[in-house]
Automatic annotation (TrEMBL):
Signal peptide: none annotated. It comes from Rotaria sordida. This is RHD domain-containing protein. One of its GO terms (molecular function) is DNA binding. InterPro entries: Ig-like_fold (IPR013783), p53-like_TF_DNA-bd_sf (IPR008967), RHD_DNA_bind_dom_sf (IPR037059).
């Protein structure tokens, strides 16, 4: 077997700039998978990739991947990044507490001299980050630096630890005997380039443009909806309700703020009783100070269908809006999206 004390070599770095995605945009029955993509490279690899020597022919060897914070003058040590990473690949050992994935090295990858990683990264909402608790140093032997007096001050935590930036840490690991987790060869560790969340937004004169994802879901409700409303003012009382003009009634919905212009909520059951295989549009209305500031139609479907099956039409909608020079935190970039299982 090749020496296990030589640093790994990254042959396809992750993209330096990316759009952050919340849990409601990723996975599950009504969402598409979004992976970390690779920068343009000579091998035309789509995902972050490392070189694999053929001598590593052992079923006990794994590649450890951990998402970590970026060291700075304020925080000079790396911490386990609180935004979770995950994968849909099989036989991966997951250490959720350390935000770490252990990927087995497959025979096919040994023959190709490389291993690529399909990794999903999820941004936490402010509520989730507040409940996350104290961040942990990557190296357990390093002294924890208390960088903020108030662990519930989410905005300060985001700023101090620069959570908009992150790195992937790759290491060789070996599963020994009956251990639950592989043992890491620290001397093989290598950090990826820094990945930075793209926060640039361009809003044209049409301030009333509203974005909603997904735009359709199951008749029984339970779909998570992410809605961007340029006119939203967090300082004012806001109401969200599903209206049904045929029944002359509205249903108020509990929601949470994701940021200053974005809310998230879960759809209720359709207010109209299903009579079979049918679909119906119900308006989602957002108002502040008795003024309607947003209205979109949500399509309820009575059959068991993934609510992103018409994702192509959704992309067309977003592309047409971008053609006017408008984009926001819900922009969809086709080169950053993988849809491997749109419908079950």
């Amino acid at each position: 077997m090749a020496q296990l004390n030589v640093p790994l070599r990254i042959i396809a770095q992750p993209k330096a700039s990316y759009r952050e995605r919340y849990s409601c945009e990723i996975g599950d029955r009504n969402r598409s998978q979004r992976y970390i993509h690779a920068e343009n490279n000579s091998n035309h690899l789509n995902y972050p990739t490392i070189e694999i020597p053929k001598q590593w022919n052992s079923p006990r060897l794994y590649i450890r991947v951990t998402l970590v914070t970026v060291c700075s003058e304020q925080v000079p040590v790396a911490y386990i990044h609180p935004y979770p990473i995950d994968t849909s690949e099989l036989n991966v050992i997951k250490d959720i507490e350390r935000n770490t994935l252990y990927f087995p090295i497959l025979e096919e990858e040994l023959n190709q001299d490389r291993k690529s990683f399909r990794i999903i990264r999820k941004k936490l909402t402010q509520h989730e980050l507040r409940n996350y608790g104290q961040l942990c140093p990557l190296n357990k032997d390093e002294k924890d630096i208390l960088c903020t007096d108030n662990p519930l001050d989410v905005r300060r935590i985001i700023d101090i630890y620069q959570l908009g930036k992150s790195q992937l840490l790759f290491s060789l690991a070996e599963l020994v005997h009956d251990d639950l987790l592989p043992s890491i060869y620290d001397e093989t560790s290598i950090y990826s380039h820094i990945m930075t969340a793209n926060t640039t937004t361009h809003i044209n004169n049409n301030k009333s443009f509203v974005r909603c994802v997904p735009t359709k879901g199951h008749w029984n409700g339970g779909d998570d909806i992410l809605m961007i409303i340029p006119k939203l003012d967090k300082r004012k009382i806001c109401q969200v309700y599903f209206g049904c003009s045929s029944l002359n009634k509205k249903r108020r919905i509990h929601f949470e703020f994701v940021d200053m212009k974005t809310i998230i909520f879960t759809t209720p059951p359709c207010p109209i009783q299903s009579t079979g295989n049918q679909s119906i549009e119900i308006p989602i209305v957002v108002s502040q100070s008795d003024e309607e500031i947003a209205r979109v139609n949500f399509l309820y479907q009575s059959y068991n269908q993934c609510s992103n099956c018409n994702i192509g039409a959704m992309f067309d909608c977003f592309k047409s809006s971008n053609s006017d020079g408008q984009s926001s935190s819900l922009d969809f970039c086709s080169d950053e999206i993988d849809i491997f299982s749109v419908c079950s």
